Each structure stands twice: as structure tokens, then as C-alpha cells.
Fold this protein.
Amino acid sequence: MGSTYFYHLTESPLETTLPMLVGKARGAGWRVLVRGTDPALLKRLDDVLWQGPDDGFAPHGIAGGPHDADQPVLLGNVSADGFACVMSVGGADVLAHEVSAIERTCILFDGHDGAALQKARGQWKALTDAGCTAQYWAQEGGRWTKKAEK
């Protein structure tokens, strides 16, 4: 069974945190799904991933193209089948059976958005009640600190 990591974004925006996490996941050899339901958010993240850090970019695509199955990183609201890691953005749902079938699930949420906080709390409860392991990470002074584990 995979693990779910909740990332409470308070100091670094999604546009900074997501590329870092995608890089770590790709470094582990994982195929990554960035799951979101807002096309404008996915387009913004697409642009961010193309810019990448100075030493490169994250090869990726937006779901719906002819080469989706070949993309090492795919952005969209699609099935987790074939991915080792799912990163939920913008409150996109991840279900317990998906968590148990993949290596890692990351749920990134804006700590300054009350609705995003409530959604993440609901996801934590639903996933842990279903027996999924979960870790809660928060930013402190520019570093990520594990605050809870269940």
C-alpha cells in the first residue's frame, strides 16, 4: 500500500513546490500524474514545468493528447492507472483504492485558502479512515517539517 503525503503550502506557492516534488518523484523513477480539475490551473502548471529549473525541465504533457501513455509526467483529471505517483492539486480527489495501488500520493493545498484547508482535512479523514497511511508536512522557515503521521 502506498503512502499519502499532505503538503500544506504556506511559504512557497504551488508553482515552486510542484516542480520540486515532480523532480524528486522522477528521480525515484516514478511516472507522475498531476491531477487537477481546473484547466486554467493545469495550463499554468504546464507553463511552469516547461520553464523548469536552470538545469532542465520536466518532460510532460497535458492529458488528451495522442502520446499520453508515453508521458513521464501527465497533467489532467484522469485515472491513476499506469502511474507510480499522483499529485493532487486544486482540491482534486484521490480515492483510497488509488492510494493503495501506487507508490506515493501527494496532496498539495494552499494554507491561506480556507476552502482548500477544509478539503484537505476531509481527504485526510477519508483516506486514513480507509486504512491509508498519511503524513502531514508543513513549511517552517523555508523547510518542510513532518507534523503528523497516521
